[in-house]
């Protein structure tokens, strides 16, 4: 059976990523595909002032450091060079003033409204899909697979500028698996 060079490179890269010997950035440089869609409007500005709203999750939020994931998302956006980020303390204060719960900001219209109140040009939402332990790794109790969905929405037009699904796996627990999933979901911003 003959395997193409691309498939071989992806499989080797995935193995190195899972073993901790390769970063997501190195993996993406090999051309690993990401599940994303990007609006041409995203490229109309050199930078977007973006507010990152707290992650939303149906029932798994007690397993996750939401503030840590939010801060990591800000760092990941800043690394692209295409976004500036509204400080999380400003976002937290506004959410408190508006009496929104951390897990309740998933509606696109509400996200846009909050972005306008913060003076942002765009908002980023993170919806955590799942965090599960793969039974194959029964001898690794901290192993987790995670999925999430990221959207970046224009505050001015309510248009979705970027939408992506990301998945990640880690032997370091749920938070690390979510960071990997976030990195994967943001790969399309650098392409």
Structural features, described:
The protein is an alpha/beta fold and about 190 residues long. The protein has two domains: about 1-35, no CATH class; about 35-190, Rossmann fold, CATH 3.40.50.10610. About 35% of the residues lie in helices and about 25% in strands. The protein is built from six helices and seven strands. A hairpin with a 5-residue loop joins β6 (about 145-155) and β7. It is globular and about 50 Å long. The model is unreliable at about 1-10 and about 25-35 (pLDDT under 50).
Q: How many alpha or pi helices?
A: 6
How many strands, which pairing sense, and closed or not: the largest β-sheet? Answer: 7 strands, mixed
Radius of gyration: 17 Å
Helix percentage = 25-40%
Query: How many individual β-strands?
Result: 7
Give me the CATH superfamily of the largest domain.
Answer: ABC-type transport auxiliary lipoprotein component
List its traits:
globular, 2 domains, 25% strand, seven-stranded mixed beta sheet, disordered N terminus, single chain, 36% helix, Rossmann fold, 191 residues, alpha/beta
Layout of secondary structure:
Elements: H1 5-19, H2 24-29, E1 35-38, E2 48-52, E3 56-57, H3 66-80, E4 83-85, H4 88-97, H5 108-117, E5 122-132, E6 144-154, E7 160-170, H6 174-185
Parallel strand pairs: 2-4, 2-5, 3-5
Antiparallel strand pairs: 1-7, 5-6, 6-7
């Amino acid at each position: 059976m003959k395997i193409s060079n691309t498939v071989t490179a992806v499989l080797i890269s995935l193995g190195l990523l899972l073993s901790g010997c390769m970063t997501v950035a190195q993996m993406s440089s090999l051309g690993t595909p990401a599940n994303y869609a990007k609006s041409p409007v995203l490229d109309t500005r050199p930078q977007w002032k973006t507010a990152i709203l707290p992650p939303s999750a149906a029932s798994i939020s007690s397993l996750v450091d939401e503030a840590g994931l939010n801060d990591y998302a800000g760092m990941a956006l800043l690394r692209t060079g295409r976004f500036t980020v509204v400080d999380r303390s400003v976002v937290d204060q506004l959410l408190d003033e508006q009496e929104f719960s951390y897990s309740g900001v998933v509606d696109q219209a509400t996200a846009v409204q909050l972005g306008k109140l913060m003076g942002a040009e765009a908002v980023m939402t993170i919806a955590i899909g799942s965090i599960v332990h793969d039974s194959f790794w029964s001898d690794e109790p901290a192993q987790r697979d995670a999925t999430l969905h990221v959207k970046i929405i224009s505050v001015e037009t309510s248009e979705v500028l970027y939408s992506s699904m990301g998945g990640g796996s880690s032997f370091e627990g749920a938070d690390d698996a979510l960071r990997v999933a976030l990195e994967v979901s943001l790969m399309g911003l650098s392409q």
